[in-house]
Design goal:
Blueprint: E1 3-6, E2 9-12, E3 17-23, E4 33-38, E5 45-50, E6 59-61, E7 69-74, E8 79-84, E9 93-99, E10 104-105, E11 109-114
Parallel strand pairs: 2-11
Antiparallel strand pairs: 1-3, 3-8, 4-5, 4-9, 5-6, 7-8, 9-10, 9-11
């Protein structure tokens, strides 16, 4: 299985960005997926997660992004998304998508928030 993340870039504080992650496997719809991030000089941290189809796509979020970020998935396209709204400078990080069932990480996409 391979995960391909995209959508990162430079965004102004207060702006929005949507990250995408395409999954190459056939069991995507069954697997829980997540987004993690690693800010410069810091450790990786959990951002958001979404369960598979058998758990009705339940979502959970880190407290620091609640009400600003939204995770979603399109099982027909084998893609998970992370919508970033009202971004802040502290959201600058490399964002990784993860297949939680298989412990597979994507290559990461860099989000830089300018103030």
């Amino acid at each position: 299985v391979q995960l391909q993340a995209s959508g990162g870039g430079l965004v102004q504080a207060g702006g929005s960005l949507r990250l995408s992650c395409t999954h190459s496997g056939s069991q995507f719809s069954l697997n829980s997926m997540a987004w993690y991030r690693q800010p410069p000089g810091a450790q990786r941290e959990f951002v958001a997660g979404i369960s598979g189809i058998l758990s009705a796509g339940m979502t959970r979020y880190a407290d620091f992004v609640k009400d600003r970020f939204t995770i979603s998935r399109d099982n027909a396209r084998n893609t998970v998304y992370l919508q970033l709204n009202s971004v802040k400078s502290e959201d600058t990080a490399v964002y990784y998508c993860v297949d939680m069932a298989l412990s597979v990480w994507g290559q990461g996409t860099l989000v830089t928030v300018s103030s």
